[in-house]
Amino acid sequence: MSDPAIKTKPRQIRVLPEVVINQIAAGEVVDRPASVVRELVDNSIDAGATEIAIYLEEGGSSLIRVVDNGSGMARDDAILAFERHATSKISESEDLNNLQTLGFRGEALPSIASVSQLVLKTRNIENPVGTQVQIWGGKIKNVRSVASAAGTDIEVGRLFFNTPARRKFLRQPATEEQRVKLWVQHAALPFPGVRYRLFADRREILNLPPASLIDRSRGIIQGSSLEFSYEEGVIELFGLIGHPATASGSADSLVLIVNGRIVKDKLLSRAIREGYDSTLKPTEIPSAVVSLTIEPSEVDVNVHPQKSEVRFRHPQMVFQTVKQAVNSVVMRFSAPFVAAQTFPFRPKETDLFRYSQTLLPTKGCESGYQPVAQALGALGVKESDPTFDLGHGSAVSVQNDFKFSRLKFLAQTLGCYLLCEHAEKFYVVDMHAAHERYNFNLVRNRFRTREISSQQLLLPFSIELSPSLFANCVEHLEVFRRYGFEVEPFGESTIVVRSVPSCFKDGDLRHLILDVASVPLEGVADGRLQEKIDHIAARIACHASIRSGRSMEPQEVYALFDALDTTEFSAACPHGRPVVVSFSRSEVEQWFGRDR
Ligand code: ADP
Ligand code: MG
What we know:
Layout: H1 4-8, H2 18-29, H3 33-46, E1 51-57, E2 63-68, H4 75-80, H5 108-114, E3 117-123, E4 130-136, E5 139-146, E6 151-157, H6 164-167, H7 173-187, E7 195-200, E8 203-208, H8 213-218, E9 225-232, E10 235-242, E11 254-258, E12 261-263, H9 266-275, E13 288-293, E14 299-300, E15 311-312, H10 315-330, E16 337-338, H11 349-359, H12 372-379, E17 408-413, E18 417-422, E19 425-430, H13 431-448, E20 454-464, H14 467-475, H15 477-482, E21 486-490, E22 494-501, H16 509-517, H17 529-544, H18 554-565, E23 580-584, H19 585-591
Parallel strand pairs: 1-7, 11-13, 16-23
Antiparallel strand pairs: 1-2, 2-6, 3-4, 3-6, 4-5, 7-8, 9-10, 10-13, 11-12, 14-15, 17-18, 18-19, 19-23, 20-22, 21-22
């Protein structure tokens, strides 16, 4: 119900006071401690800092402080910095097409100051004394000269103290700290020369000394990864691509950097995903750090108040280049996965304890478990896979000379696993996953080159389908034919199958037909064709592959190994599970406490 008094009140238009304008802008620019940190640290980087220390108290809700050793500001600038649209970084609209700095909107400081109790201390190297500016809720309280180190020290106290509705949205301190920590880990990547330290309630929770993007990325991608660099036209790419099995349900380990700026970009995420081709489950997000450098005029960063989204002038070109680059790296993951990393990624500490108890007895066996750090070390969780320790090369120079055919087959166990050895290492191959990967590639590649051969069934096979499956089949007879299925409708709900893809040998034909018929094909003309083809190929591959439990003759095993050496992505099955894991002598020795 509306209040008639309000309705009849004459409307008055007025220009809002500056403080209110800044509070409105603050709603877009800063929503939580992590975004305040982001703005302040970006400013430190723009000021040329090489040391940045961040302090949080109570997750940033009582204090966020950023101290840098950058250029600092002279007294006049220190005051002007809090004016809306006051910036030293651009001066005319042309500059927007050629941004060299992280900031340019001149919004952050006034916005943050309008919703906090802020103290700025800064000294420009040329000045003997520094300046302190104190601002509460956007109002300057006082300005004075103070002794201070060269650089800038900003304390943002009691964030959202004057906007209680927003303050309520702050999460538990631990949650806010985590967000800040994650952001700092990512933001440090493009600035190898800068040291970052993060303290929470005076405890240091992050210390990142200067290190290359690749080295820092290894702390983000937990598991095997390959380094790459790639150049095409105006685009330069480099970074670290995680093994398909390092993918997870969260986007925390997918870092996208455009011209030194951390972004969340749908186009780039999708390009990377597609670069992983058939190796990810639909819900998985890959672990990768991809840094893209492009002419500033090719990208618009002024599309989002937090500058975390970008728009490319030639999106299609960027998409194809990134996809292609990532794909060329993923294709090289054919070496075995190190054993430790086949256990659930980022194991919880408790899981590690359990694991360390069962597999890693301590010497003397008094306490029964090892400290987590030691267990982590033993499991190789923190380290990147030595198999992939390939020096600083581009994708092209990556060597990955693992060959299945060199393995000596020892035995089959638990129905599905082939135990093997080679050169002081012990290998376990999942025979179903291996065969599935091989068949999948075969079906898919032949589909692409229109060479799937089919074999005629001795007796045509007829199967009754539900109306929707029947309709799907009948409408797409041509697609089925390209997969090697010769299928004809018979009556209202039955189809007759005369031939099937020849890789399909002794599986359950009925299941295969039902499975393939149920892949929805209505959108085949749209851009998602590839996905559907993969879908069908994966099903054919699965049905055509050796069942677990069947015993394999050594010659069959060696034939499978030879075949695997001829195929791409042989390290993971079409569902992204590893095909082979390896254990070094020292790992095996650790199981038995023989490592020293
Ligand atoms: P922007 O970064 O978009 O220019 P800000 O509001 O973040 O806008 O900052 C305003 C100005 O204050 C900057 O342009 C810069 O000149 C100055 N400034 C802010 N932080 C620092 C800092 N840590 N060191 C030196 N100068 C700074
Ligand atoms: Mg800024």
